Amino acid sequence: MYLVDQSSNDEAYIDLLEKEINADKIKGFDLELFNPDFFKKNASIVIAKLEEYLADSSIKGLALTDPTELITAAKSLMTSAQDEITPFDEKKLTAIIDLYVRTGIQVHSPGYMGRQFSGVVPLAGIFDMVNSILNQPSSFYEAAQLPNAVEDIMANELNQFIGWPQNEFAMVTTSGGSLANLTALLAARNDKYPHFWSKGATSVNQDLRPAIAVSEDAHYSVSRAAGIMGIGENQLVKLPVNTQKQIDITQVVPTIEDAKKRGLDVFCLVASVGTTATGAFDDIDTLGEIAQALNVWLHIDGAHGASLLVSDKLRHKLKGIEKVDSFSWDAHKMMFVPGMCTLLFYKDKYKSYGAFQQNASYVFEQSKDKYTQYDSAEQNFECTKRPLIMNLWVLWAIHGKALFAQKIEHLCHLTQEAYHLLSHELDFTPVHVPESNILCFKYTPFNSDINHIKDFQLQIRNAIKEDGTFFISKVDINQETCLRLVFMNHTIDMHHVRQLLQKIRGIGQQIIHQH
Ligand SMILES: *Cc1c(COP(=O)(O)O)cnc(C)c1O
């Protein structure tokens, strides 16, 4: 609704408008907040705080705060003014940052060993500020020219490690590995059942229901995708894993054939490079051949482990990657950029247009010009999309791939060392041979039958969390709870690992004695 009739001529309209709305309010509007010198002042406060944060190398886990207390603390930092803009208050800004830092998961501390997101390369974090201030939605070339050009550059840079013919493959950036998995599975579904997109599930033969074959150890985003896509979680065909938690290659064909007898039409096989639980790498080289022989789409969830592609020493773990139809890659995990930056690769560029429509390649050829061929809006779910590639690219452009390769190699090496240490300590039992930077184990002292203590490993994990020096996670393997380390921080060394084991011993013995 307009305040005045817009049909009146422009000058009269503006005149009227100025009278109708409160002129004081216009004048009172604090434009200072947008001034560059004000920006500089704000930024220098923030940078000084972050410098302080990064300089702190103490060993810290997580100090979990009572949520009600935290809400009260946060509320105390809010202005109560309603009608006026409260002037900038440096103390308040620093107090907000302090509260954020103090209550946060300490990803830059060597005590942080528990999860797959990491302390970022600081330059990538700083560059994220450039993204935020320039604020370019990157699904369209015309709205974000450099990010879209850079996506093209990075696709080709990273394809050096894959080996697909140039111009035949596609790389799409998307907000997270879960969304990448969903997107790829949609492309696979629409490729097999072209009418599913427009007509829905009724378009497929009900005697042979669409199904997805997936490792027992797959990330939950895959089953979630099956639910979202109308495939139904019940149509997930679980592929058994071997003792190393990799898909048991000998079981793939029999399991899929057996599913067919039960009326399930497996159109896609999902494997992982770097499972969430143990960091296991499936044999994608052999799976590639099997998928081809069965004529099913092979999607690899590489959210965690695809980054190993950039390392000459570790790339062999992804042997056969050129055979897959699609794979996802979280750069916000092992490429150490801020959350989030996910890359979704397709072997066939045209099929990347099939995730969100029917007859995709036809549409592509009909409607693209020199600019719009760089748009990704048809390939990704987001409408407004952050320029996700830029933080990764700026590191790649300035420091080159060695930055990533060396850090990843270091972390994987550290994990091997920790594994050997654990194997030689008589009171610890590793539960797998680590393949990347994830290590799962148990504390198994002799002086007690720990089987009689309910949830012993879980109790240890919770006590470690409570203690606040180290942050580790837990995972269920073969129905038993284990302790889990994820090494994402290169400042962790064996001295820290030994310190953690001592801590676990102390806490474990305490639990035994209390029992
Ligand atoms: C982290 C992870 C995901 C989910 O990715 P998000 O970026 O957190 O959405 C999926 N699969 C695997 C194997 C992962 O490690």
Q: What does this protein look like?
A:
The strands form 2 sheets. The protein has a 7-stranded mixed sheet with strand order 1-7-6-5-4-2-3, with helices on both faces. The protein has a 4-stranded antiparallel sheet with strand order 8-9-11-10, covered by helices on one side. Helix 3 (36-55) runs parallel beside helix 5 and helix 6 packs across helix 15 (389-399). The protein is globular. It is 43% helix and 12% strand. The protein is of the alpha/beta class and 515 residues long. It has helices at 10-20, 23-28, 36-55, 67-75, 90-103, 122-134, 145-159, 177-192, 196-199, 220-228, 249-261, 284-294, 331-334, 360-367, 389-399, 402-424, 456-467, 494-514; strands at residues 170-174, 209-215, 236-239, 264-272, 297-301, 326-330, 342-346, 428-430, 438-443, 473-477, 480-486.
Topology diagram in text:
Layout: H1 10-20, H2 23-28, H3 36-55, H4 67-75, H5 90-103, H6 122-134, H7 145-159, E1 170-174, H8 177-192, H9 196-199, E2 209-215, H10 220-228, E3 236-239, H11 249-261, E4 264-272, H12 284-294, E5 297-301, E6 326-330, H13 331-334, E7 342-346, H14 360-367, H15 389-399, H16 402-424, E8 428-430, E9 438-443, H17 456-467, E10 473-477, E11 480-486, H18 494-514
Parallel strand pairs: 2-3, 2-4, 4-5, 5-6
Antiparallel strand pairs: 1-7, 6-7, 8-9, 9-11, 10-11
The protein binds pyridoxal-5'-phosphate.
The site of pyridoxal-5'-phosphate has 16 residues, from helix 8.
